[in-house]
Specification:
Layout (H helix, E strand, L loop, with lengths): L5 H8 L4 H8 L33 H5 L9 H7 E5 L5 E17 L2 E8 L8 E4 L3 E8 L8 E2 L21 E7 L4 E6 L5 H6 L3 E7 L11 E10 L9 E4 L5 H4 L2 E4 L3 E8 L6 E6 L4 E5 L8 E3 L1 E5 L3 E7 L4 E6 L3 H5 L3 E7 L4
Parallel strand pairs: 2-5, 4-9, 10-13, 12-20
Antiparallel strand pairs: 1-2, 2-3, 5-7, 6-8, 8-9, 10-11, 13-18, 14-17, 14-19, 15-16, 15-18, 19-20
The chain binds copper (II) ion.
C-alpha cells in the first residue's frame, strides 16, 4: 500500500525527481520493466519518468475531443446522436454511464476512480445555445451517483435534490435546453460530495452561442480540466494535473501554430484545495469568465479559479518554441501540474 504522506512525498522526491517517488511508491505498469532505467527526458523541468500505458486515457486526444469525436463512427453512434429539429436547433442524445475503474494518473501509478464512461474527466459535452440535450445515464457503479449540470434547468433535472441519486443498476434520463452559452460542466452530486467529485465524476460542458447571440472566432480549441488525486485517502492530494495524467504535456507538448488563435476551455475540479490556477509563461491571454460573454474582462498571464469555476482563455503565440504552463501554486506544479506548449511556424 501507498504509505507516503503528501509532506513526506515532497521531502522524499524534491523538485526535479517526482519520478523517483512514483517509482518507489507505485505499482508498476510494465511487467518486470523498471521505469527507473529510462533516462529522464525533459530533465530541465520537474516531471515523471516514463509514460502511461498506451490504449488507456490519452490526455493529448482528450484536449481536442468533444461529443465522442475521438471514436470511429460506428462506436460513436452507440453513445452520441444528433438530430436536426425544425427550428434549426439540434437534439443531442448521449449515453453516459458511471463505472468504477482503476485509472493511471502517472506512469505506473493507479487510482481507484469512479468514472463517467470509464474516463476522468468524463466525456466533454458540447452543444449550441438552444439545442435540446437528452442524456441517458446508467449507473453501473457500486455506489449511488447522479449527474448535476451547471446550466439553466428545471429542479427535476438537478441531480442533487433528495431522491435524485441514481442507484446502482438504475437509469435516469436528464433532459434540458443548452442555456446559457458559455463554459460549464457537470459532476456527480451524491453525498459525500467531496468524495464523489474527487473520485473522478466530473466533466466539461461547452455551450456555443447561437448565431443571433454572436460567435467566437475560429480557433484551435483545447479542453483543460484541472484536477488532483488523493492517493492516500487523507483528504490531501498527492498528484496534481491538468486532464488527469501528471506531467502528460511535458512528455507530449501541446502543439500549436504561431499566429493562430488558441482557445482554452479551463475548468477547475480540484478537490481538497480551495483554489487552483494556470500561469502561461512569456505570454498573456484574454479571459472570458464562465464564457457567458463574448467580451473579455481581463488580459493577464495568471488566472485563479475555485472549484467549479471556469474560464475561456484566448491567446495567440507570437514566437516558435516551448512555452511552459503550470499552476502557480508551485507545490501543485511540483506534484504534476505542469505542461508545455510547442509553438511551430505555420506551414506555407
Ligand atoms: Cu457519485
Amino acid at each position: 500500500m501507498w504509505q507516503l504522506t503528501r509532506r513526506s512525498w515532497l521531502r522524499a522526491t524534491g523538485f526535479a525527481s517526482l519520478a523517483g517517488g512514483l517509482v518507489r511508491g507505485a505499482r508498476l505498469a510494465g511487467q518486470g520493466k523498471s521505469l527507473a532505467h529510462h533516462p529522464p527526458h525533459n530533465a530541465h523541468v520537474m516531471g515523471t519518468v516514463g509514460r502511461t500505458a498506451p490504449g488507456g486515457f490519452n490526455p493529448s486526444t482528450f484536449l481536442r475531443t468533444w461529443n465522442f469525436g475521438e471514436l470511429p463512427p460506428m462506436e460513436r453512434a452507440k453513445v452520441y446522436r444528433e438530430t436536426p429539429r425544425p427550428d434549426g436547433t439540434m437534439l443531442r442524445e448521449y449515453q453516459i454511464f458511471a463505472a468504477d475503474r482503476e485509472i493511471e494518473i502517472a506512469p505506473g501509478m493507479f487510482f481507484p476512480a469512479w468514472t463517467y464512461n470509464g474516463q476522468v474527466p468524463g466525456p466533454t459535452i458540447r452543444a449550441t445555445e438552444g439545442d435540446r440535450i437528452r442524456i441517458t445515464f446508467r449507473n453501473l457503479g457500486t455506489h449511488p451517483h447522479s449527474m448535476h449540470f451547471h446550466n439553466w434547468h428545471p429542479p427535476a433535472m438537478d441531480g442533487a435534490l433528495a431522491g435524485q441519486e441514481v442507484e446502482p443498476g438504475q437509469t435516469f434520463i436528464y433532459e434540458f435546453d443548452a442555456d446559457p452559452f458559455g463554459l460549464h460542466h457537470y459532476h456527480c452530486h451524491t453525498v459525500p460530495l467531496k468524495r464523489h467529485i474527487h473520485k473522478g465524476l466530473y466533466g466539461a460542458f461547452i455551450i456555443d452561442p447561437r448565431a443571433s447571440s454572436g460567435s467566437r472566432r475560429p480557433a484551435d480549441e483545447l479542453v483543460m480540466v484541472m484536477n488532483a488525486f488523493d492517493t492516500t485517502f487523507d483528504a490531501e492530494n498527492e498528484v496534481y494535473a491538468v486532464n488527469t495524467v501528471a506531467n502528460a504535456y511535458v512528455h507530449e507538448p501541446i502543439r500549436v501554430t504561431v499566429g493562430r488563435l488558441v482557445r482554452i476551455y479551463l475548468v477547475n475540479f480540484t478537490e481538497f484545495d480551495p483554489i487552483n490556477s494556470l500561469h502561461l509563461h512569456a505570454m498573456f491571454f484574454d479571459v472570458y469568465r464562465t464564457g457567458t460573454s463574448l467580451a473579455s474582462s481581463e488580459r493577464t498571464d495568471t488566472i485563479m479559479l475555485c472549484q467549479a469555476e471556469r474560464a475561456i482563455l484566448e491567446t495567440t503565440f507570437r514566437y516558435p518554441g516551448d512555452f511552459m504552463f503550470h499552476a502557480h501554486q508551485t507545490e501543485f506544479a511540483e506534484l504534476g501540474w505542469v505542461g508545455l506548449f510547442r509553438a511551430e511556424a505555420p506551414l506555407t
